[in-house]
User: Which sequence fits this backbone?
């Protein structure tokens, strides 16, 4: 009976660990990435940002004029002050014909899914 209880407890532990691991966010691939865009203010960007990101402040009003210089092939990752801000930028880009634009959410959420460091 004791062996059966240990076997069941071990099986439950394995299932629990596997389930928790499956819920953890994985890192996104950096293969075929055209750009990482930070839509926050220049001040926030200069304070800290994802390494390799370019700052195109969505609040300045020239986002669309600036973003059209980015080629449309490859993935484009976008993050902002909030997920909604990044979502607005993603929608603008999709309206301009960018087929593979991904909303990473806010700065902290982007750090969780990108396999890159941040500047300090």
Assistant:
């Amino acid at each position: 009976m004791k062996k059966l209880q240990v076997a069941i407890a071990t099986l439950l532990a394995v299932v629990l660990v596997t389930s928790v691991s499956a819920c953890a966010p994985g890192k996104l691939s950096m293969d075929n990435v055209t750009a990482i865009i930070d839509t926050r203010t220049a001040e926030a960007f200069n304070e800290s940002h994802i390494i390799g990101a370019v700052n195109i402040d969505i609040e300045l009003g020239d986002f669309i004029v600036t973003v059209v210089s980015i080629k449309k092939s490859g993935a484009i990752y976008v993050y902002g002050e909030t997920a909604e801000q990044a979502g607005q930028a993603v929608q603008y880009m999709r309206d301009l014909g960018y087929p593979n634009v991904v909303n990473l959410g806010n700065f902290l959420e982007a750090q969780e899914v990108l396999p890159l460091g941040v500047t300090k």
Notes: The longest helix spans residues 2-23. The chain has five helices and four strands. The CA atoms of residues 27 and 114 lie 5 Å apart. The longest strand covers residues 33-38.
